Amino acid sequence: MAHKVFIDGEAGTTGLQIRERLERRADIDLVQPDPARRKDPAARREALEAADVAILCLPDAAAREAVALAEGLPVRIIDASTAHRVADGWLYGFPELSAGTRAALPGARLVSNPGCYSTGAIALAAPLVRAGLIAADEPLSINAVSGYTGGGKELIAEYESGAAPDFFVYALAQAHKHLPEIMVQSGLTARPVFAPSVGDFAQGMAVQIPLHLNGRRIADLRDALAAHYGGARFVKVVDPQARVVPTTLNDTNRIELSVHGSDEHGVAVLVAVLDNLGKGASGAAVQNLNLMIGADEGAGL
After folding, report:
1. pLDDT, tens digit, for every residue of 187-223?
2. How far apart are CA 11 and CA 133, in angstroms?
């Protein structure tokens, strides 16, 4: 029997990609209200009531509204917004983060989908904090570049019209919405300095964490990451390349991690490459859905 899935906000970039991944699957029956009523609370409540799982691809306020609309219903929820990523009662949907996360997904009712920058940063930092190779209070900096689709409809329109710059850095006041989840899920107690940026390409992302080794070794960092992700289907530790290209994994649900640097010079750079709309958004949501409903983890991916 097919699982009924309602994508609340399917007209947005993330929602469209989730729909494309699901609409050809025989085990998924999409619940699609009349488009003219897609913002009508009554229509959304009806769709939530009809669905087994709802995937919220909405701004934070609208996602909270959807959760309130679903109160009292058995529908399970995957929230792709920032609204519930550090909220009590929500499972953070990064299956590779821990065995406990993966084991909890099949029975979870409320799952928050990780952010795109967060996915790269947490994938690098969390295993190293747990291995004692990064101290929880170590002052870290995180640099990242993303394709412009991560900025939503207005930024996409700006780039597609030719009005946007080739590259810009933003959110330097250190209030970026991904910082809380990066700290919580990585186990950091010191707030990192985060410098995100956007380039003139639609999809793709590279996240970098530079480190002074201070007695650590490049091989130890790489081995700890490889041990943590051994056997993971979508996360791989790869050899460093001379050039890091953010678009390498576009249209996939994969993330590749590498450790660059020099023991001789005492410095390293941890790097994660992923598709901001794949493992950083829609692909991750479908992966979480698959694990929640007992489907093959890679179905539709």
Report:
1. 999 999 999 999 999 999 999 999 999 999 999 999 9
2. 43
Domain that holds residue 16: 3-114+281-293
Task: Look up 57 and say whether it is catalytic.
Answer: no
Summarize pLDDT for 152-195 with one digit per residue, the tens.
889 999 999 999 999 999 999 999 999 999 999 999 999 999 99
Q: Is residue 75 part of a domain?
A: yes
Q: Which of 116, 123, 224, 272 is catalytic?
A: 116
In a domain, 300, yes or no: no
Give this prediction's pTM. Answer: 0.95
Give the count of domains, the chain: 2
CATH code (residue 10): 3.40.50.720
User: Within this chain, do residues 86 and 189 fall inside the same structural domain, yes or no?
Assistant: no
Residues 272 and 285 in one domain: no
